[in-house]
Amino acid sequence: xxxxxxxxxxxxxxxxxxxxxxxxxxxxxxxxxxxxxxxxxxxxxxxxxxxxxxxxxxxxxxxxxxxxxxxxxxxxxxxxxxxxxxxxxxxxxxxxxxxxxxxxxxxxxxxxxxxxxxxxxxxxxxxxxxxxxxxxxxxxxxxxxxxxxxxxxxxxxxxxxxxxxxxxxxxxxxxxxxxxxxxxxxxxxxxxxxxxxxxxxxxxxxxxxxxxxxxxxxxxxxxxxxxxxxxxxxxxxxxxxxxxxxxxxxxxxxxxxxxxxxxxxxxxxxxxxxxxxxxxxxxxxxxxxxxxxxxxxxxxxxxxxxxxxxxxxxxxxxxxxxxxxxxxxxxxxxxxxxxxxxxxxxxxxxxxxxxxxxxxxxxxxxxx
Length: 368
Prior knowledge:
It contains 14 helices and five strands. It is mainly α. The strands form two sheets. The protein has a three-stranded parallel sheet. β4, α8 and β5 form a beta-alpha-beta unit. α4 crosses α7 (150-164).
């Protein structure tokens, strides 16, 4: 019998071939990268390496990058109204502090562009309950809630709308989000079959540096998370050097003193190696070589120093932007205006195909 991993791999291969086949027969779409960041809790190193820095790198290589603050998505969990705006500004400031250039890309708040929600409704009418309820993330989260909100079920549909409303071609995701992107691709195929071509099939940009697999410092079996009740489980972008050193010193490892990179059997030490690699742009073999002769306790000092050096400039820029929130608001306002222009163009095509608007030629005759 095939195990779950093998089935998932086979499905991904089939999915990839279907996307490539569709690209061959369809029109060429301009490359556009779209991604969102939720304003829930303070950002940590997992968010920085796995999302913010990746977006900056994509922008520097010439990609058209659109980054939005996913405030609508945050409502699948309980939100305090008074905290949403400060957190939204904080995430936007972190994107700018990480190096995202608003002149070369688009940074905006999701709810400032109504087309996200409008397209979400149309796509929701093409999705099936069985498909959405089968997703592992939904099943995991729903199992922990007594009364499951409908928004949790529709979460991947809104994600699809976030991407498709800008005709996003590529999405930086971790492996745990890959299935949500497959939902988006399935919705594209369904829409094209029923109404006609309107969107590209978005493809995942999976990291090859392990930045989507940063683990909790206190429990390496889990991902580093903003919602973890233990503050020592994560390193925040606002943490001082002393706080970073303390958290790394307290990081859970094991009883073997040598430093090796074995994620399956030595998750804690391997997590330190991965953080060292990301901070210094190394591969695991290089990091392990540098740690030769050191105990894991001594190696923690090396990792802490690398992280302090990496975080310091981002932390300084964050502090500067926190003192000037009007600059961040101006960037978001300008970004929303640009995003609305792009979304309106795509949605008008969708509305015409679905019959919500008359075809352009008929519209001209009605006006005249």
